[in-house]
Design a protein that fits this description.
CATH superfamily of the largest domain: Alpha-ketoacid/pyruvate dehydrogenase kinase, N-terminal domain
Subcellular location: Mitochondrion matrix
Shape: flat
CATH topology of the largest domain: Butyryl-CoA Dehydrogenase, subunit A, domain 3
GO molecular function: ATP binding; pyruvate dehydrogenase (acetyl-transferring) kinase activity
Largest sheet: 2 strands, antiparallel
CATH class of the largest domain: Mainly Alpha
Pfam family, one: HATPase_c
Oligomer: single chain
Distance between the termini: 39 Å
Number of strands: 4
Structural class: mainly alpha
CATH architecture of the largest domain: Up-down Bundle
Family: Belongs to the PDK/BCKDK protein kinase family.
Strand order of the largest sheet: 1-2
GO biological process, one term: regulation of glucose metabolic process
């Protein structure tokens, strides 16, 4: 990143970049077939994007020097540290109390205490939270479309192309917002060899993928062995390599016929029974 990066440069970048990304995906939503656009769930998703664009445009001409826009970082004059008994370390040890080491500055850095976030940060968090249910709501819209109009190969191809771009756009927007909003972290380093393996990854993406894999494996296992007294185990192997980590899941759900392989990654295809609309829950 830039050596001159600060709250103001982050603000200047996001208030220009986010409207562009939101506008581009809104334009693509409008290019969907009319039958898809008329479904209640897709209209709801569309309204979320419109509101988020309006929220971010409020800051287009806002002055970053205004304390209510970004919040400010106070630099209080802290009292000198107390005298320590001989034999005690100047640096406090972290023993399960994350507050012990806070307030101590790194060498060359002014000690500072963050104020409450400004209006811009609050708006980013609101936008991010508003879009939390975009994926299941858009999936509900696809179900509503199929229930009303059935399968149309041409429309299905257009929807497939759109959803690929739509979900990638959503990921990029959420990554941008998450990089510029406060993120909780643990100040205690994991320095013990008995600790579980740690990797750098977006948690929500990993949880979503593993949830889908476990769900599919469990359903296939139950359906294939519904008359058996015991269900075979689902086995998961985690292998840490030099540059990556691999997760392999194995079940005895009878696999997928070769003729259906090409359909597995279509948003319009599922082997699960169609959920009842209006049940109040997201389709699984």
């Amino acid at each position: 990143g830039s050596s001159n990066a600060c709250e103001k440069t982050s603000f200047a970048f996001l208030r220009q970049e986010l409207p562009v990304r939101l506008s581009n995906i809104m334009k693509e939503i409008n290019l969907l077939p009319d039958r898809v656009l008329r479904t209640p769930s897709v209209q709801l998703v569309q309204s979320w994007y419109v509101q988020s664009l309006l929220d971010i445009m409020e800051f287009h001409d806002r002055d970053p020097e205004d304390q209510t826009t970004l919040g400010q970082l106070r630099h209080p004059k802290l009292p000198p540290p107390p005298e320590l008994h001989p034999g005690f370390s100047q640096r406090p040890q972290l023993l399960g109390n994350p507050g012990l080491d806070r307030g101590r500055a790194r060498p060359g850095c002014p000690q500072r205490r963050p104020c409450p976030p400004g209006r811009f940060t609050n708006a980013l968090v609101t936008i991010r939270n508003r879009h939390n249910d975009v994926v299941p709501t858009m999936a509900q819209g696809v179900i509503e479309y199929k229930e009303a109009y059935g399968d149309d190969p041409v429309s299905n191809q257009n929807i497939q192309y759109f959803l690929d771009r739509f979900y990638l756009s959503r990921i990029s927007i959420r990554m941008l917002i998450n990089q510029h909003t406060p993120t909780p972290f643990s100040p205690t380093p994991a320095s013990h060899s008995e600790q579980p393996v740690s990797i750098v990854y977006v948690p929500s993406h990993l949880y979503h993928m593993l949830f889908e894999l476990f769900k599919n494996a469990m359903r296939a296992t139950v359906e294939s062995h519904e008359n058996s007294p015991r269900l075979p185990a689902i086995r998961v192997m985690v292998a840490l390599g030099q540059e990556d980590l691999s997760i392999r899941m194995s079940d005895r759900g009878m696999g997928v016929p070769l003729r259906k392989i090409e359909r597995l990654f279509s948003y319009m295809y599922s082997t699960a029974p169609t959920p009842q609309l209006g049940s109040g829950g997201a389709p699984l």
